[in-house]
């Protein structure tokens, strides 16, 4: 099978993107893992298919780098909106369906604004917060973030008794002045630290609001900067937006 693929990245979170509107692409777990392999394949944190879906501009189908179907990916969603605009499926606004439900998005001044799911509650754990922003996230506030071994500490939490069955993404966040955060994330499915995690920074922003941070919050990740805006509603949040760049890196062909 010959595939035409595109490579996109959003603040260093990179993806193999495929146009499957004609429903001709069916990949096995092993094939997805191969395409995402950084030594033997194309290399990416995940793979996405853009597909037709009645009632929506398109459907987002997302796979982790290990080849398994995954929950929502925020940076992936932003990149797929940019891809849909490139394909002329949408102009400056999009309404699409993903694993966690419908999403709206718009493009403005070179940035993709992606509406994330509403969050009803934040669960307080010992020294951390757990919440679902389309994917499950463990958020721990730390100091001296840049000196941490995020791989080792994140992996230990991800495979702890509480989370090892379903897994969780693990975020370490340092609170900075002027309504800013610095975030590093260990992602399940990739099983490593990534340069950026959209649902992760969203989770960190909502958790930080409990400490007095106000919308919009600016978040520094290894791959650049993102913003999260939101409205608080009781113990939850609505109109949550993940905002940042989405860039097409290259187009290529590969044979499976």
From TrEMBL:
It is found in: Cytoplasm. Pathway: Amino-acid biosynthesis; L-lysine biosynthesis via DAP pathway; DL-2,6-diaminopimelate from LL-2,6-diaminopimelate: step 1/1. The active site is at residues 73, 197. Keywords: Amino-acid biosynthesis, Cytoplasm, Isomerase, Lysine biosynthesis. Its main location: cytoplasm. InterPro entries: DAP_epimerase_DapF. Its EC number is 5.1.1.7. SUPFAM superfamilies: Diaminopimelate epimerase-like. The keyword S-adenosyl-L-methionine does not apply. GO terms for biological process: lysine biosynthetic process via diaminopimelate. It comes from the Bacteria. The record marks 137, 187 as: Could be important to modulate the pK values of the two catalytic cysteine residues. One of its GO terms (molecular function) is diaminopimelate epimerase activity. Substrate binds at residues 13, 64, 74-75, 169, 187-188, 198-199. One of its GO terms (cellular component) is cytosol. It catalyses: (2S,6S)-2,6-diaminopimelate = meso-2,6-diaminopimelate. Homodimer. Belongs to the diaminopimelate epimerase family. Catalyzes the stereoinversion of LL-2,6-diaminopimelate (L,L-DAP) to meso-diaminopimelate (meso-DAP), a precursor of L-lysine and an essential component of the bacterial peptidoglycan. This is Diaminopimelate epimerase. The gene is dapF.
């Amino acid at each position: 099978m010959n595939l035409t693929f595109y490579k996109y990245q959003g603040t260093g979170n990179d993806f193999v993107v495929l146009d499957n509107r004609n429903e001709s692409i069916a990949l096995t777990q092993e094939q997805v893992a191969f395409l995402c392999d950084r030594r033997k394949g194309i290399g990416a944190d995940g793979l996405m298919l853009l597909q037709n879906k009645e009632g929506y501009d398109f459907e987002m189908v997302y796979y982790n780098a290990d080849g398994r179907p995954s929950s929502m990916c925020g940076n992936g969603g932003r990149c797929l909106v940019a891809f849909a605009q490139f394909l002329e499926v949408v102009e400056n606004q999009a309404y699409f369906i993903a694993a966690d439900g419908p999403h709206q998005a718009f493009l403005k001044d070179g940035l993709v604004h992606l509406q994330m799911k509403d969050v009803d509650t934040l669960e307080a754990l010992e020294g951390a917060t757990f919440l679902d922003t389309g994917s499950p996230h463990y958020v721990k506030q730390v100091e001296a973030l840049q000196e941490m071994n995020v791989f080792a500490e994140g992996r230990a939490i991800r495979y702890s008794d509480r989370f090892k069955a379903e897994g969780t993404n693990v975020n370490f966040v340092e609170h900075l002045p002027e309504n800013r955060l610095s975030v590093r994330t260990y992602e399940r499915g990739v099983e490593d630290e990534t340069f950026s995690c959209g649902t992760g920074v969203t989770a960190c922003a909502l958790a930080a609001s409990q400490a007095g941070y106000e919308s919009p919050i600016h978040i520094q990740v290894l791959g650049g900067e993102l913003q999260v805006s939101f409205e608080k509603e009781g113990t939850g949040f609505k109109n949550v937006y993940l905002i940042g760049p989405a860039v097409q890196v290259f187009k290529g062909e590969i044979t499976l």
